[in-house]
Each structure stands twice: as structure tokens, then as C-alpha cells.
UniProtKB/TrEMBL annotation:
Entry keyword annotation includes Secreted: no
SUPFAM superfamilies: EGF/Laminin, Growth factor receptor domain
Disulfide cross-links: 38-55, 57-66, 98-107, 136-145, 174-183
InterPro entries in alphabetical order: EGF (IPR000742), EGF-like_Ca-bd_dom (IPR001881), EGF-type_Asp/Asn_hydroxyl_site (IPR000152), EGF_Ca-bd_CS (IPR018097), Growth_fac_rcpt_cys_sf (IPR009030), Notch_Cell-Fate_Det (IPR051022)
Keywords: Disulfide bond, EGF-like domain, Glycoprotein, Repeat, Signal
CDD domains, per database record: EGF_CA
Record-linked SMART domains: EGF, EGF_CA
GO cellular component term, pick one: plasma membrane
Protein known as: EGF-like domain-containing protein
Domain EGF-like: 29-67, 69-108, 110-146, 148-184, 186-223
Length: 233
């Protein structure tokens, strides 16, 4: 068996360095960028992690070594949404051209068409995609709730009543002899017993008629009817 010093003399010891170090005693820092690992004009930086490096790629290149060419507007890189158009800029960044009704860097925001308050007469604006609609208050109509509804167009007042249009309502001014919200009720004038001296009252539409007892005449039959001239004293 050979003595131990024989091995130390003929086979001196050496260090097995960890990644990023070299030299007899592993004291020399390896610059990983010296080997120019980054391609296509990329810039190489040593990583904070020993033995590693980072490639900063020029426009239109990607990958660990910037070895893959790509377009920022191709899948899966295209960031533009909502059917917008992607344009690749000279610096390699995408620019999104939005469809009408959308905005934002990537056309991700639905434009609020209600921000200009287009609905009139306190109508409620409901935003859509490149559109809006107005939910009108009672009594108004139209795309922008700009028209007041004329409730008198349907002629709601009966028996020759006059219709007065108001906002979301109407009133009826009734002809003599009628009442009710629509002038639909005939006043029974006979209820007040207008016929005098035992005359009979017949209610008519918008009025009444008295049938006088014998010997009386007049509208309400208060005048006696004589067979000859009356001579007063």
C-alpha cells in the first residue's frame, strides 16, 4: 500500500466551484455575459443570483436568449380586446385602436354615453355598448323623453266636457248638468225638487223638465194660470 503523502504529492487537491465562480480556490466571479449568450442585439446583465444572467430583448424578440421573433399583436401576446385593432409600434409595444363605444389602453372600458345626460325631463339614461336608451318619467315620451304625452288626444271627457292637458294627467271641465272625473255622470236635477206646486220633475240629460199641475205654468211652475183677466185691487 502506497503511503498517503504519495497521493498528495502526485495528485494535489483542487476545488470544485459552485455556479458562477472559478479559480484554484473558487474566488473569481464568472461574468456570464462574457460568452455573449443574448442574441439579436439583446443586452446582457448579470443576475443578482450567482451564476445566472438576464437578457433584455430588443423590440419584436422574446425568450430567455431573445432568440424568438414575435409580434405584439399576434396571439397569445395581443392585449387588445372588444374587437379592437392592434398596431405594432416601432418600439415593439402594441397600440390598440378601439371600436366606437370603447376606450382605454386596451379598449377594455365601455364608453359611458350617459355622461352627457342626454335624457330630458328627468328621464333615466341606461348605458349600452355605443348606445343608450332613455327610460322616461310618466307623462313623457320620445327618444330623449323630450315630448310630453297629451292625455287629451284620446278625448277622455264625456258629454261635451272640455279636456285640459297637464303633465301625466288631465282634468275635465264639465258642461252644465254633468259631473265626475270624466263628466260621465248626469246630475239628477230632480233631486233638489225644483218643480213647485205639485209639479212632476223628469230628469233629462243635462237638465230637467217640469210637468205642471193643473192651473200652474212657468219654468218651475210657480205662477197660477187663470181662465180670465185678473183685476187686482
Amino acid at each position: 500500500m502506497l503511503p498517503l503523502f504519495f497521493f498528495f504529492f502526485f495528485f494535489p487537491s483542487r476545488c470544485l466551484c459552485t455556479a458562477g465562480w472559478t479559480g484554484p480556490d473558487c474566488s473569481e466571479d464568472i461574468n456570464e455575459c462574457d460568452s455573449e449568450p443574448c442574441l439579436n442585439g439583446a443586452t446582457c446583465y448579470e443576475s443578482v443570483k450567482q451564476g445566472q444572467f438576464v437578457c433584455i430583448c430588443p423590440p419584436f424578440y422574446t425568450g430567455d436568449f431573445c432568440h424568438q421573433r414575435f409580434s405584439p399583436c399576434e396571439l397569445p401576446y395581443n392585449p387588445c380586446i372588444n374587437n379592437s385593432t392592434c398596431l405594432a409600434q416601432a418600439d415593439g409595444n402594441p397600440m390598440c385602436i378601439c371600436k366606437t363605444g370603447y376606450e382605454g389602453t386596451y379598449c377594455e372600458v365601455n364608453s359611458d354615453e350617459c355622461i352627457s345626460h342626454p335624457c330630458q325631463n328627468e328621464g333615466l339614461c341606461v348605458d349600452g355598448v355605443n348606445s343608450y336608451r332613455c327610460s322616461c318619467q310618466h307623462g313623457f315620451t320620445g327618444t330623449l323623453c323630450e315630448m310630453e304625452i297629451n292625455e287629451c288626444l284620446s278625448r277622455p271627457c264625456k258629454n261635451n266636457g272640455t279636456c285640459v292637458d297637464l303633465i301625466n294627467r288631465f282634468i275635465c271641465n264639465c258642461a252644465p248638468g254633468y259631473y265626475g272625473s270624466l263628466c260621465e255622470i248626469d246630475i239628477n236635477e230632480c233631486e233638489t225638487l225644483p218643480c213647485l206646486n205639485g209639479g212632476s220633475c223628469i230628469n233629462r240629460l243635462g237638465g230637467y223638465q217640469c210637468f205642471c199641475s193643473p192651473g200652474f205654468t212657468g219654468i218651475v211652475h210657480s205662477l197660477p194660470q187663470w181662465g180670465g183677466l185678473f183685476h187686482g185691487f
